[in-house]
Amino acid sequence: MSKRTRTGGSPIFESLDSALLGESLEAGFSPGSGTFYCLECGSQLALGETDSLPECPGCGGARFRRDSIFAARQEHGAATAKPPVHERSAPPEWLAEARRTLGRPGDHLVLREDDGALAGLTIEPGWTRIGRSVAADLRLDDPSVSRRHALIVAEPGADLMVLDDRSLDGVFVNGARIEWAPLRDGDELTIGRYRLYAVRTIH
Predict the structure, then answer these.
(1) Which of the four, 14, 132, 146, 165, has the lowest number of CB atoms within 10 Å?
(2) How confident is the prediction for the chain on average, in pLDDT?
(3) Structural domain span for residue 137
(4) Confidence of residue 95 (pLDDT cuts 50, 70, 90)
(5) 0.70 exceeded by pTM
(6) 122 with 188, same domain?
(7) Averaging pLDDT over each range in 85-89, 96-100, 192-196, which range is the top one?
(8) Cβ atoms 178, 171 nearer than 8 A
(9) Cα 130 versus chain centre, distance
(10) ∠ CA(51), CA(34), CA(18), 5° rounding?
């Protein structure tokens, strides 16, 4: 089959190898809708038109390539994975216990760690950085969390505010993806695989 050409003889369609299969795409890039596979482990991701490539949910890798619909069926070692959907869960039973054990009045973020222990962070006035970076005020060391994931803003007499700090997988409050939103007592904050809860205590 011959290629169509523009005026002047240059091909309208480049070869599949260079245009579709050879291009390496980095996490954080928005390539448009389609299916992409991780160059490290072969895990596949299905993205919508406005989605950005996250870090690989299988291995944490950051380099991807688009699967071609024109080539023969490709096997990359893993089934296609869609970006996670976050729904608000019912308040956990341990939240009441965490509320009772918080020592000082104010705003806090609490979560239950993998070993069952309860952990809490008192939110100080100003900015609180959340992410995987060692510079974060609240460090969540997991591939599902971006190095700079979210910011909490605390001002006297006002509700906490949470800001998506250009994360790859987004910030969710009560199951809804947000860019900038209030964070009130009892609200669920989802960052990567972690579900944290806002608690305001008055003693």
Answers:
(1) 14
(2) 77
(3) 93-201
(4) confident
(5) no
(6) yes
(7) 192-196
(8) yes
(9) 12
(10) 115
Supply the pLDDT for residue 203.
Answer: 59
Domain stops at, among 66, 84, 119: 66
- Which residue is it, tokens 């091909």? 11
Domain count, the chain: 2
Side chain identity at 50, as an amino acid letter? T
d(CA 48, CA 17): 23
Rounded distance between C-alpha atoms, residue 33 and residue 46, angstroms:
8
Looking at the structure, tell me whether residues 52 and 133 fall in a common domain. no
Higher pLDDT, 68 or 134: 134
**Structural domain includes residue 128:** yes
Angle at 71 between CA 70 and CA 75, to 5 degrees: 130
Query: Would you say residue 175 lies in a domain?
Result: yes
Structure tokens, 80? 């296609």
Q: Does residue 26 fall inside a structural domain?
A: no
Closest C-alpha among 163, 160, 135 to residue 149: 163
Return the CA Rg of the chain. 22
Pairing of strands 126-131, 63-66: unpaired
pLDDT in tens, 27-40: 888 877 777 778 88
Average pLDDT over residues 74-101: 63
Helix (H) or strand (E) holding 46: strand 44-47
* CATH number of the domain within which 145 lies: 2.60.200.20
